Amino acid sequence: MSLHAGYKAPADCPGVIPVFPLPGALLLPRGQMPLNIFEPRYLAMVDEALRTDRIIGMIQPDAEGGGSPMAPRLYRIGCAGRISQFAETGDGRYLISLTGVARFRVESEIAGPTPFRRCQVSYDDFASDFEARAGEEQVDREGVLKALRDFVEVNDLKVDWSGIEEAPNEALVNALCMMSPFGVREKQAMLEAPDLKTRAEVLVAVTEMELVRGDGSEPTLQ
Fold first, then answer.
1. What is the pLDDT of residues 40-52, one digit of tens each?
2. Listed residue (57, 60, 49) closest to 22, CA to CA
3. Rounded to the nearest 10 degrees, what angle do helices 141-155 and 196-213 cross at?
4. Which stretches make up the Lon N-terminal domain (predicted)?
């Protein structure tokens, strides 16, 4: 089953999925996330995903939500990704790439014998995620690019401006959000934004707060 042929609506996606809690890791629909897997429980998670739907749910642990170090409480919203590339190294690691399919809401965690965590999830709140480039025309592209230019200048970074100028709005906004150096709460706000326009606005706002702070510390949403 190909990624584009297989997942066209919430009903096409598995309701129970393995989840990978990783702070600061933001996956968005149609985005690409490379992962270096080496912990035994997550090697087992990848093995299970490859045997079944090839789906893994990326989700952030909520540091303020309690739980234990081995099983922290999770945010309620994550993003499902399909394993689109896979390689095994000589020392037993897996190098995989996930392609974002759609966001999900955690309904419950499934108790069971697996060393990795699994959740019952729903995609119904995020039906628009299955429509490529939805809402692109509403994005303030110039505002996004201005914030990026200011951030690049202040931090003396090098970027591929030709690739950025050619990127469609969805790919531009989502890639910048995924690659941004901001904290867990900021990444979660970008993930939970109801549409692409709002996500771009969150990205710009967080970037501007970081520029105002100017001290290199982690920005905080008020």
1. 999 999 999 999 9
2. 60
3. 30
4. 17-211
